[in-house]
Design a protein that fits this description.
Zinc Finger, Delta Prime, domain 3; Rossmann fold; five-stranded parallel beta sheet; Helicase, Ruva Protein, domain 3; 319 residues; 15 helices; alpha/beta
Length: 319
């Protein structure tokens, strides 16, 4: 049969992926007789291996699930690694880890050599993430119109883990039939999730004040970022731009050398932003950041969100 390793940063996404995989492997079989699941902090890895090595009874195969496997240390692994190298042909073994646990490289390498690794973490690029969201919608048995999908993508922001819950709600409300419209899904969407910081800084650099203020609000409320965290993002953004003042950078490599940025694309963006601002506006941006930082730390008796809104509005007007 097959070995699987399901990984990801979010426990809910990992659990959904494992549930879908188990359903696929069981098919029309009797789940109660085919599936053994091990979870929590009490089970030992050897019992997972023993279950996988046990021939099926009154079924054609067994499906064995071991969760939170990153908690096992090197002393626990020999039996599992031996099994992965020579699995029973009547067992499907699913190992899963979702969260901050560090997976043993030995497990990853062993599954890679003998089976399949399923990564549940969504792509970071906006275009790839939209494709991933469409795939999740399809896997949930739903059909959603393009305009409604675009709204869902925007609502999720950088919190794709919320997708599983809203798709479950939509499926419960509408079932599997019919294509859902924007009006259908809107009542089920609560506060919008946070957004990637580069969307926020791109809006400021493009002079899109209204959009930048909207994204600021989503970062604070949906993304639960403290204003000082957002200030750190802005400091990093404008510090890279400031390092290009007088550097006469003409290529991505020049910009990388001047800023210390390790990748060509963000170095190129910093160079483009410096050309938009010029030296005087770059200096003014640093001054605005310094004053706002002092205001956030109590120099003025102002609400922190108001300080950030004024800062973002002023930064977006610089040219």
């Amino acid at each position: 049969m097959a070995n699987y390793l399901v990984t990801g940063d979010d426990e809910s996404l990992v659990r959904t992926a494992v549930a879908n995989l188990v359903n696929e492997l069981v098919g029309d079989g009797d789940r109660s007789m085919m599936v053994d699941e091990f979870d929590g902090d009490d089970y030992e890895l050897r019992v997972v291996v023993d279950s996988a090595q046990t021939p099926p009874f009154l079924t054609d195969k067994r499906v064995v699930v071991g969760r939170s496997v990153s908690r096992f240390n090197a002393d626990d692994l020999p039996a599992l690694l031996a099994y992965l190298a020579n699995p029973l042909d009547t067992s499907d073994l699913i190992l899963a880890e979702g969260g901050d646990g560090r997976m043993s490289k030995k497990i990853t390498d062993a599954v890679k050599a003998s089976g399949t690794i399923i990564a549940t973490a969504p792509p970071k690029k906006a275009g790839d993430r939209q494709t991933w969201i469409r795939e999740q919608i399809s896997d949930a048995g739903l059909q959603i119109e393009p305009q409604a999908v675009a709204r869902l993508v925007d609502w999720l922001g950088e919190e794709p883990a919320r997708l599983d819950g809203v798709l479950g709600t939509l499926r419960g409300a509408f079932g599997d039939g019919g294509k859902l419209s924007l009006d259908d899904i809107e009542p089920f969407l609560g506060e919008a999730g946070g957004v990637p910081p580069w969307d926020f800084t791109d809006a400021i650099s493009s002079g899109q004040t209204a959009k930048a203020l909207l994204l600021l609000g989503r970062m604070i409320h949906g993304g639960k970022r403290h204003p000082l965290q957002i200030m750190s993002t802005l400091h990093s953004h404008y510090s890279s731009i400031a390092k290009l003042d007088g550097a006469n950078a003409r290529t991505e490599q020049d910009a990388m050398a001047a800023t210390g940025i390790k990748s060509p694309f963000p170095a190129k963006k910093a160079m483009q932003n410096y050309r938009k601002l010029g030296g005087a506006s770059t200096k003014r941006a640093i001054e605005l950041l310094a004053q706002a930082d002092l205001d956030l730390r109590g120099a003025k008796d102002l609400d922190a969100e108001l300080v950030m809104e004024v800062l973002v509005a002023r930064l977006s007007k610089l040219r």
